[in-house]
Amino acid sequence: MREFRPIELIKGIKPHENLDYSYSWESKICQFLADDSDSENINIRKVLPVNVFDDACFRETIAHLTTDIALEVEVKEPGTKDCVGNVKLVWLATVKKVCGYRVLMRWIGCDKEGDDKHDFWINFCTADLHRVGWGAENKGDAVSYVTPLVISDRRTDWNVFLAQSLTPMRTLARTFESMKRQVQKCKLQVGERVELLDNNVSTRVRPAIVLKTVGRRVCLQVKSVDYDVKKDPHKEDIAEERQFEGEFWCDQDSHYIFHIGWAARNGYKCYARDGYLKHCEQIARAIENDVEPEFAPNDVRPEIVFGFHKTIEPGTPHFEAGMKLEFLDPLDTNFNKLKVGTVVRLLKDGYLVVGADGDDMENESVPFHCTSGFIFPVGYAKKYGIKLIPPGGDENDEENFNWDVYLKQTRAISAPEALFQNVADKEKMMRDFPIGASFEASDLNESQLICPAHIVSIKGRLLEIGYDGWGAEYNQLFDYRAHDIFPLGWCEAHGYKLEMPKVSSRRVMVMASYGIKLKIDLKNVYIPDGASGVRTIASTKMENDSYLEIAQTETLFHNANPSFYQRISLQYRFDNFLRIRLDVVLVKDHLSEQIVGKLGEATFDVPVLLANKGRLTLPITSHAQVDIFLESTEFYGHAANFRFVGNHLHHPEVCPTIAPYFVFTLVLEKRSLLLHRSEVIQSRNPQWMNFVVPLYIMQFYQEGLLQLNVYNHFPNHDDLLIGSFSTTFIQIQRGPGYLNSYMLVNPEGKKKEEKMSVDLVHFEQTSCDSYFDLLNQGLNVHVGVAIDFTASNGDPTQPESLHFIHPHHPNSYTKIMLKTLPSIVGHARDNRITAIGFGAKIGHAHQMSNCFPLDSSQIDVFLRNPSEANFHVTGFDGLLNCYRRIRLEVMPFAPTEFADSIYHMSKFAKAATRLNMGLYFVLVVLTDGDVTNPKNTRDALIDACEAPISVVAVGIGNKDFSKIRALEAPNLKHSDGRPLTRQVLSFVQESDLSNDDSLALLPYRIQQWKLNVSSK
To answer: What sequence ranges are listed for the domain Copine C-terminal (predicted)?
Structure first.
């Protein structure tokens, strides 16, 4: 298996953010390489080459890579130190394939058949890659040539061999090391000040500060030092923007950025404090009078911004006010359509203001430079098959719009075609940008995001790109020379997060899974004659009972107790049965790494590994054993600490006494997750306590809205909604301030009184025990199952009954148990299951019960004295056997009521807490009907919310389950007035099981209980 070497960032580059959930191209690259196996071209066809990206680092160097180029690569292998003292260890490798910034390399000396398995992928921008001779020329750390382990035993005359091998080869220019510094080069510096086009109000600019840079990309922020938000007439739009006290990302040459004094020089509106405006007026007068302006030390000057702009030569065609054209509106959300536009007015230095034709042209205008890739000649959209939004913005009139007629009606002329950027040769565009080729691209709607993307079509000089996993409606148009598209591997090279592709049909499956790794150690290994090393191959069991290989460790030689460095990566879901087989194979020698036999194997279930505190020891032979250790990332132990306060809260329908509390939820497509319910405070200006939420749950579901509902508490009847607001986690991360001060709205979306608001006053990242930490500390899961035997299921002796058991086919209840329970039961260390039946008459007297033992041998004991009955069965097989027997021994009845089953489980959960037993209870309720009395079930859930228990109800069939769904609400209230403090119930219908996360989110429920209940 080819190795993907992690990047060593070039000196001076620091990771921009937590990269645990940055997308890796690895699986895609493997697929691209396999599809490209018949090509002799060094560039992989399905990836855009670096040289087609304008101004990309190393574009010319990578374009000239060939298979006879050798490079020095730092040796970093298991069992080999990165350096000895201050001596760096390097060896030479040649280039085999190029995939964007990723390069496939092969060690010199790997010249045997099958040696391609030792090839490795490395990012060309890594600090570990050097030209041949760098070791000798390096004036810093000393360098020593050392052969990698895979070839170290193949010969002894490596110096002679190396000299002979290098004779016909070439290497990179001496400037290669200095060129690495260009990776992080940006013409704007942190702390400098620019004028920034308002992303909501395009008719004005505001002063902004450069917060950080990543390559050419800059992060800008409008700060209150130069901008008074309280006096801004557009302050109502602040919550919708990303610039004020936020992070707004764009390219250093973006149309959003202007030099200090640009607005004053061009008569463009600048909204800023008086001191800044006076400073800019002085700069503008000085430029007009050809006098050196007195710029502040951090002011960005005209020559910096104009470095890429061409000027208009006298006597040549030029734009005039009133000319018509087409343009791509950078402030619209439709980046796949052009608009009909007019040159509203001309500015200085080659700038012009373009407005969208319609009633509000002035207010929908944008400043462009005449060289901009966002403006196009009349007829461009029709020529290249792009949708054109006609005047007024009514897309339904597109088919009726005709430029010739419109020009006559408006008595206008079109801008000469010579004024616009030339359209590249069609054949060259098709050759450089093949359809389907992959790369990375900024999302123009959310400019901080960079996503995996691919070419959809070519429209003149515009590229229509699609974002991997997203539908065609999200496609966007980019000029082929735009600096918002990047070669594959750009994010990795810059330590910037690459967003995960959206896989809509499996999104829940991906989002609710946890990335874990397995470390493998062997003990007492005897290596027979004919072999010298061992390797471990990991495979996972498939639905057809076959095993699919998923990973291998490296090979370790001459070691009776090998400890493998390479981990086995897995995606773990609580509700997915995951069985792993480890095959320990014997390897002949370093030269061939040929597998010559099998030492033994061990099979285990991942839930069992978790139940055993993340460690298992299993035999592989009569003497040898394998130790398996589970490792999880620190990411799952990160948390966010919030604190909110209310201002001037009241409700027109309540008495002067007010007792507000809030419910904070994550609103998803199918449900709302309760993140926190605050305490009740009798005050119009409540200062609620801090609370903690695991960070990953909000990053799993970044598309979900965070909603905060404020209620007024009443002891004896339903609470009243005072108001609410919705936001996003991206917005919350901006921290306390004006951007996270929210006016409350009513259910119709209308704002309440302006003074009535909720403010975020504290937000910080902190740490907490992750789910995996809790398991390692001894937490154990206990599983319960409650099965519905009500009459609505039908007579179990009849084939149409849901409880009828066919001799060759499982019934509906058995299917659900087989699908949901094996993995959950596997998490239980003692393999005992609480098995409950409800909704039937039991025993000889036909006594009605909504909570009886599923084990029929315990029915008589239960009827004599319920407390003496044993509700436990052993293992999943024991559960199925008891179910098969009892379905014919009870009399189906009514109503559908499983409150007693919840009370039964929560009683033991509360007792386990008092005895500090470290147990968390999971009750799975299988039912074919809606609850008859929701009040009883609601009270049972609220009674249980302080206990270590979760309830998952699975609806079987297609009946109306609206009453059960209503019990998922985050603001339930007990009959005696007590509130729901933690969400206990999740409901999923049988048909949705494959695409639902109710069971998969149980680790989050466990962690939430530990954070918000157990810790009190």
So the answer is: 801-997
Residue spans of alpha helices (H) in 535-629: 606-611
- Selection from 931, 906, 963, 905 nearest residue 839 by Cα: 931
Rounded to an integer, the average pLDDT of 57-68 is 94
Mapped onto helix, strand or coil, the DSSP state of residue 250 is: strand
Q: Phi and psi for 424 in degrees, rounded to 5?
A: -65, 160
Q: In sequence order, which residues have a C-beta less than 8 Å from that of residue 660 and are 6 or more positions away?
A: 646, 649, 680, 681, 683, 684, 686, 710, 711, 712, 713, 722
Would you state the structure tokens that stand for residue 200, as one six-digit string?
A: 């909501």
Instruction: Indicate if 144 and 16 belong to the same structural domain.
Output: yes
Does residue 20 have a pLDDT over 70?
A: no
Please give the Cα distance from 625 to 643 (Å, whole number): 51
Using a 10 angstrom Cβ sphere, with 0-12 exposed, 13-18 middle and 19 or more buried, the burial of residue 758 is buried
pTM of the model: 0.64
Determine the pLDDT at residue 504.
42
Total domains in the chain come to: 7
Contacts of 817 (CB under 8 A, 6+ apart): 785, 876, 879, 880, 883, 926
Positive or negative torsion for Cα 454, 458, 461, 466: negative
pLDDT at 6 over 70: yes
Top-confidence residue, 701 or 846: 846
Q: Are residues 130 and 262 in the same domain?
A: no
Same domain, 94 and 174: yes
Question: Do 534 and 610 share a domain, yes or no?
Answer: yes
Residue-wise pLDDT tens digits, 542-595: 888 889 888 889 899 999 999 998 889 888 889 888 999 999 999 998 777 788
| Pairing verdict, β 83-84 and 87-99 | antiparallel
DSSP classification of residue 1010: I
Rounded Cα distance, 497 and 451, in Å: 9
Residues in the chain: 1016
| pLDDT at 969 > cutoff 60 | yes
Q: Where are the beta strands (DSSP E) in 573-700?
A: 579-587, 595-605, 615-619, 625-632, 638-647, 660-667, 672-677, 691-694
Q: How far apart are CA 942 and CA 626, in angstroms?
A: 46
